[in-house]
Write a structure and sequence with these properties.
The complex is a heterodimer of chains A (276) and B (278). Chain A is mainly alpha-helical. Chain A contains 11 helices and 8 strands. In chain A, the strands form 2 sheets. A 3-stranded antiparallel β-sheet of chain A has the order 3-4-5. In chain B, helix 5 packs parallel to helix 13, helix 7 packs across helix 11 and helix 7 packs antiparallel against helix 12. In chain B, a hairpin with a 3-residue loop joins strand 2 and strand 3. The chains are: A mainly alpha (276), B mainly alpha (278). Strand 8 of chain A pairs parallel with strand 1 of chain B.
Chain lengths: 276, 278
Amino acid sequence: MITDPAQQVRKRDITFAGRTRTEIWQEIPSKENPYLAGQCRCHGYDILELAGKRSFAEVLFLLFQGELPTPEQARMLEFLLIAMINPGPRHPATRAAMNAAVSKTHTQHLLPIGLSVLGGAHLGGAEVLASMRFLGANLERLPAEVARECLAAPRPDDGGDFHPAPGFGSRFGGIDPMPRQMADVLATLPGNGDAVAWGTAFVEALAPHGLGWLGPGIAAACLHDLGFSPWAGAGLFQLICAPGILAHGLELADKPITSMPFLDEEHYVIAAEARK
Amino acid sequence: MSSLPKQGNDTSFWDQRRGRILTRKGGWIIGEAVYNHGYSMLDDFVGEVSFFQVLALNTVGRMVERSFADWLEALFICLSWPDSRIWCNQIGSLAGTLRASPVAAVCSGILASDAKMYGPGCMTTACDFIVGALRDNNAGLSPEGIVDCHPNRRNGGIPVIAGYARPVATGDERIAAMARTAAKLGLEDGKHLSLAYEIEKIMQAKWDESMNLAGYGAAFFADQGFAAQEVYRLLSCWVNSGVHACYAEAADQPPESFFPLHCEDIDYQGKPPRPVPA
């Protein structure tokens, strides 16, 4: 029992929605059962009609933005969906799914495990979100001027990589060539917009310092130019990378536990102070 | 910190780590022992110390007193509500009704609690606030001044301070329970917590808002010498017990029987029906 008046708890005088609202999806109940949908519409379009007439990339765009993309936007999104479909077997997010798989984790968990790891602030969804905000905040400014400011900030002296701005920096001490090549292709696509062009100019100023595009920066610029909000950036990046993470996990799911390294004592180095 | 660029493609930092793992935490030497921060885990911990002492050691690298570990355990109990209306708990119920595994359910519920509004996700801002407030207070700013100067405001000018106010209700009954527990364990209030209570008085008098459990916890942790990131890590599984309860109840009932919705229970406010353009 609470006796101290200062600790009394009172329900707030606030009103919660009686029903959850959505502008995305409409389910028309079947005549026989109000719990079952007889028809589903995505932003007004019948989902089965969409399935027959439109590509996955187009319907993905529609789902998040409320309208179907132009052919140029669809092409650009399709490029991103394919170019980033797989972070690769050395990426920590993919390795998380692979580690789980080889230790016989139930396969339905492999994707959530990998995607949780891919949510991080370094090369993950949180960096895409931050990068979209960075691009949105700086597109009206000169890229070289912004680069000067970013480079003037002290860099961590921990021996690792440096991201002077989210989505841009070094990887393993160098400029990652794959995002740079993706940017080169994106620049030739008709759907290419301000952010890809701005980012390309930004990395020109970073390059002498051993810094360039990172994968999350490419995703951020592309998603920004396609009109997605930063809020969508983190999750869309996870969605785009999901197939590769799952595929690598499943590749190991039926393999023996010996199929991946388990370091011996010589290579698992416990500091003296951690031993008794 | 340095502003000097590294030589391009200097991979020496990574080369030192390639193919091996370096740890200051510990590990299993097969046939010898499991070492944990300078202890033998099976000899020194099992049956000797509490789980929350080991949790704190693994998380922040320091062995804490049993009394503090018991306080921490009590703090976990404070977020063990078996109420499936609570957002993270309802995820446990939804997982149960779809027959997800208990591990997936609890992980999902815990992940949901990594939120700005409640749970471990709000602790770093609560810790940063009270640490900054004590710094300002030591520099001469009164508790009233701390509240008045706070930059974040919502309707009517109410200061939005991490650790004060909570969703759905005003007041927080858990603080009295925790304060009672701390006293029973012989743990005294420190400067951060004393200031937190002073700020609460201002918030109550001016805005009818009280300190919440996050505010109490942040101040208590700060008095015990924990940094914000350490608190975030220590509390990452804070809600797990309540999610378990809600999962179990839903998983023990027929599938899809938890809180079912008619199609019309969703308020569609989007575009009217339209044909897909050619």
